[in-house]
Structures are given as structure tokens and as C-alpha cells.
Specification:
This protein is 7% helix and 48% strand. It has a 16-stranded mixed β-sheet that branches. It is built from two helices and 16 strands. The protein is globular, with a radius of gyration of 23 Å. It has one domain: outer membrane lipoprotein receptor (LolB), chain A. The chain is mainly β and 295 residues long. Strand 6 and strand 7 form a beta hairpin.
Length: 295
């Protein structure tokens, strides 16, 4: 005999709710055109930022937080970046790094280490987490690249999870552009996924993938503001899961399209610094530079 029908099921309330915010409509081509037009407006940026960062995770076994670092960021297309971080309170240099899109230099005064190498060289160092940062990765997250003829973009309709004032989850529809980089007529590789808010059609998240289809960079964008007629996010978070570091930037001051000189992207090797060449074999990668006049 079957039990009574009342014992076979029960009704539960659905906790998730949908956002009631007005949503904008657009097309796949509309998203691509808007993204490309925004990218074309920005040729350079100069920003003062507050930085919160962390390094570590499951691989390292613990997480180290670095709070209240004042930073200065210079970026110039096509691929130049210079970023300086200052220690809290004393405002001495915590790090100084530059990149021309191919090679980078990183100066870490507290460690007396000067790291040089190509952007595509990976040498994860759990003991020196700052050395895992590549300026090019920050550049690619800061300035979202346009979708060009070497790429194919397809629109997908999805959802993002927001939270109300009481912390309850709320679903809101979004638009997503899945970007494939072409490799020949019939071959391609997953390059990026860009997620747009339906309330203003601004990018709110960008996934950048490596050649194996893994997420290399997870960037989030929030609190867009108007800077001389150009809308730009004032809060940016850059997470690199492979190297296990996270950088949160709160923009305090931003100047767009200001002329920046080549010498503003130069970084000289400090005298007496321990020089780390990531392009060399491990046994010969570290060199202690002689002080000036000792050679």
C-alpha cells in the first residue's frame, strides 16, 4: 500500500528573486560596437589608486593580505604600463614595475630584488609572491581590448547574482560575449568572456583564458564614473587563479588621454640589487649586482 498522498511531497518557498530594475535591450552587434567604441576613446591613462591585495590560496596553504597600499598607474597603448606601490603610513616604495608588452621589469625594495624577463615566462615562486605579478596582465584587465577581425564574438544571455540590502540573493539578467580567437579557417581558441550589466550595458566582468582554456585572469568592474566625457570603472578587481594573487584598485584620481612620454615607462636597475633573470635557468637566474664603481 502506498502511503497517503500528503507524505509524498511538500511545498517550499523559493528564496531567490529576480531584480525589478529596468533592463536595457541590445543586440550582439550592439555590444561589440559599444565595446569597440569605448576602447577607441582611451589612448592612455594616469591614475592614483588605493590598492588592497592578497597572495596565496589552496596551493600555498594560506593567504597573506596587503592593505592600504597607495598606487600610481600609467598606461599607454598599445601595451605600455608603469605601476608603483607605496607602503602604508611611511609611503616608501613597496614595488615598481614596468612593461612594454613583451618584457617587464620589477623592483622590490623591501627584498632588494630586481626581476626582469619576458611577459610570457612563468616562474611561480611561492616564497616571493610579488614576482608572480606581470604588468601585462594588469594592463589587459585595465583596458579591455576591442574585438578585432582576428576574433569571433557570440552573444549569450545569462544571469548574475546580486544581493539586496538584507543580503538576500537576487538574480538579474545580463549579456555575455564569448570571444573566440581564430586560428585558421576552421580552428579557434577560447580567448575571453565579457559580461555586461543590463542596467547600463557597461562591462562588469571579464574572463581572460590561456591557451588550454583555463581562466588566467578574472577581472571585475564596478562603480562607473564620468571622466571628461568617458565612462570608466572606479573600482577594479584583478584575480589570477594560477598564481593565486588578487589586486583590488579603488581609483582616487584618473586622467585619460594625457600625453605620456617614453621615459615615464623606464625603470633602471638599482645599484647593488639582487637581479633575477626569469629567462635564464634557475641556477643562473639570480645575480647580485655590484655597487657603482666596483666594476
Amino acid at each position: 500500500m502506498l502511503p497517503s498522498a500528503g507524505c509524498l511531497f511538500r511545498t517550499r518557498p523559493v528564496e531567490e528573486q529576480y531584480s525589478k530594475a529596468p533592463l536595457l535591450e541590445t543586440t550582439q552587434q550592439g555590444l561589440i560596437d559599444g565595446l569597440n567604441q569605448q576602447a577607441e576613446k582611451i589612448h592612455s591613462l594616469q591614475a592614483t589608486v588605493d590598492i588592497d591585495s592578497s597572495s596565496g590560496g589552496a596551493k600555498k596553504g594560506h593567504v597573506t593580505d596587503y592593505k592600504e597600499i597607495r598606487g600610481y598607474v600609467l598606461a599607454r597603448k598599445p601595451a605600455m604600463l608603469h605601476m608603483i606601490g607605496l607602503m602604508p603610513i611611511v609611503r616608501t616604495t613597496a614595488f615598481d614595475m614596468v612593461s612594454d608588452g613583451n618584457e617587464f621589469k620589477l623592483w622590490i625594495p623591501p627584498k632588494n630584488r630586481f626581476v626582469v624577463g619576458r611577459n610570457d615566462v612563468k616562474n611561480p615562486n611561492v616564497d616571493q609572491p610579488m614576482e608572480n605579478i606581470r604588468p601585462q596582465n594588469i594592463y589587459d584587465a585595465l583596458l579591455i581590448r576591442p574585438i578585432d577581425d582576428s576574433e569571433l564574438a557570440v552573444m549569450e544571455k545569462g544571469y548574475q547574482t546580486l544581493h539586496d540590502a538584507k543580503g538576500h540573493p537576487i538574480l538579474q539578467e545580463d549579456y555575455e560575449l564569448v570571444v573566440i580567437r581564430k586560428r585558421g579557417e576552421r580552428d579557434g581558441v577560447l580567448s575571453r568572456k565579457i559580461i555586461f550589466s543590463r542596467t547600463d550595458l557597461h562591462p562588469i566582468r571579464q574572463y581572460i583564458y590561456d591557451e588550454q582554456g583555463r581562466v588566467a585572469t578574472d577581472a571585475r568592474y564596478a562603480d562607473y564614473k564620468d571622466y571628461d566625457g568617458i565612462s570608466f570603472p572606479s573600482r577594479i578587481e584583478i584575480y589570477r587563479p594560477e598564481e593565486e594573487y588578487d589586486i583590488k584598485m579603488n581609483i582616487l584620481k584618473l586622467e585619460l588621454n594625457k600625453a605620456l612620454k617614453d621615459e615615464q615607462f623606464a625603470l633602471s636597475q638599482p645599484p647593488g640589487a639582487q637581479v633575477v633573470h626569469l629567462d635564464r635557468p634557475q641556477s643562473s637566474s639570480v645575480v647580485v649586482a655590484a655597487p657603482d664603481g666596483a666594476r
